[in-house]
Design goal:
By secondary structure, the chain is of the alpha/beta class. Helices cover 36% and strands 10% of the residues.
Length: 436
Amino acid sequence: MDAQRRETAPIEKKNFRIDVQVHDVLMGQPARPGLEPRGEPQKLPEPVFPQHPELAGDIELPGSVWPVDPANPYARRWSAPLIWRAMRGWLFPYLKSRVLPGDFHPIIAYLFTEWKCNLDCHYCWAFDNRVKGMTEDTAKRAIDWLHETGCRVLALMGGEVLLRPKFVHKVCYYAAKKGFWIYVPTNGRLLRPDVTDRLGDAGVAVFNLAVDSVEDRRELPKALQPIWPYFEYLVKKQHAYGYAVFFNINITRINLEDVRRLTEIAHDYGIATDYHINESPMLAQEHFQHAADNSTFITPQDWPKVDELIDWLIERNLSGYKMVNSVYRLNEMKAFMRGKVQDWSCRAGHNSIIIRTDGTLAPCFPMYSATFDWGAVEEPRFDRAQLEAMKTACQPHCFSTLNHNLAYCYDARRALRWVLKQALRGFQGTSGSFDH
């Protein structure tokens, strides 16, 4: 009976989730120093477009890239250059990080080109429309520095990344020329066909299409229906440019049926899905307008329905649906929303970092608003002891899918088993997720 009372007791309401003592340390320093100027501001080169004029526009795709199996119209075959791009982006930096001395070997960097957004999802604090976007000088210096560290995965982040499509085109073009595997997330509202063509032509490897509902909703405006023509064009042109597409879906208390519908749509179109369990801010966010009485935040009364949805997702994963999340991690969502402690060996600050719009660094996305000084581009100041002490407090409050996947796969046995599994299938993709 006592255990039942604890499980159904209301969660204490506060404007951050991390422990108070750690919160005060992370938020108690003066404003972070930005990136120091060095001579004249640098510029990104003007992209050449189109580099592949035969692929631009609404074309009939050639047989070499269009599906060969009429029974599976969204099947695809990965070419040797695309396989090499993925290995150069992920595998080789991973191997170097395991054998080179030192703690700081970024495999993936999240470049926040924007902190503004064109939508107002009620659960999301990850934008402030007073903040200026990243400059060309900061972007170029960041990419050059990351290249020197051995990092080869660049994930653009926001806000909404496509608020400045010309700027993003420049960033992607320059990074691709330096050998980066590039990841672009977007809510899709600004993903016009010409933007898809420019970014595909530049060399983007993955489009993360963030959708939480099928029809447009006031609390969840990241909806599929308003962007349907853009979505279909994006999926079609992946066969020309060689990028991949997946849905990024946030599980809230008001979209459980939408999650099922979006999962089936993704499966019908042959693309993957990635799931998050809704979280309130880890650190205090003074600009967040929906902190109180938020209709999207999951309550104890919602746990049984969310459990049922997670079990449904696990069944689909085991049946072969393409998912970024492992079955293990999907199961852990149940424990996480109940506030149970978990230690998942987070690699943030060692193998993953974020670069804010002003060029300053932080170990991970939940720490974006921290004033603690982890350095800036060209001058990182990550300290192993500080990171380990901080993570004892923040890991139980964090459900970062991307950082968890990095930690989960940083186990050499899992990584090698996954590579072998891919190799046995000719590097043509596998169903399910990491752990089966």
